[in-house]
Amino acid sequence: MLFVGSAEVTNQEYARFLNAVAASDPNGLFNPLMASDPRGGIARSGVSGSFTYAPRANMAQKPVDFVALCKALGVEHVRLVDPYRLPDVYKAVKEALAHPGPSVIVTNQPCVLIEEFHRTQPFEVLDELCNGCGACLKTGCPAIQVIRREVVRLPNGRDKELSYVTIDPMGCNGCDLCVQTCGPKAIVPVGSAAWATSSAAPEE
Predict the structure, then answer these.
(1) If you placed Cys at 72, which of 33, 148, 187, 202 could pair as Cys (CB 3.0 to 4.6 Å)?
(2) How far is Cα 155 from Cα 141, in angstroms, rounded to an integer?
């Protein structure tokens, strides 16, 4: 199951949720460690059928620690990753799929499609360096567009299709995932190539 949240959930918000649905808590949405563990931020009072929940002192506006929450619920395989570091994400997903029991992957950066994500300088492709490998296309980014394809014959006799790309600067949010995949270093911040060329030019 995949769940994508658009913002962090605070202890106050989670306590409000528990008060709405967990008066008896048959699904174990609250774990005692939320109250006893130093990282926990919610306390429970009352008896089953009339449980009430409230944030612990000075914890109301702090985000719920989902790593601690998942471990408190008994999930042994929990990984916290930066979603913009592709090797770490691939490794975490591979390990999660291989794990025999429940697995949870928690990311610590906002989705690039929500308002909380702050756009940075977009990227562009240097045509003279792009070798058509198509590795950047595997990121699934809609800003990366194929502008030319060609088929070449490899030394082993097999044909290989090359895909030369460009990046739409209006669609690029500067997340740099494509940069990590580019072997020939053909993806650079917009304008950096012109700056490098002008800075290297001899003065008259």
Answers:
(1) 33
(2) 31
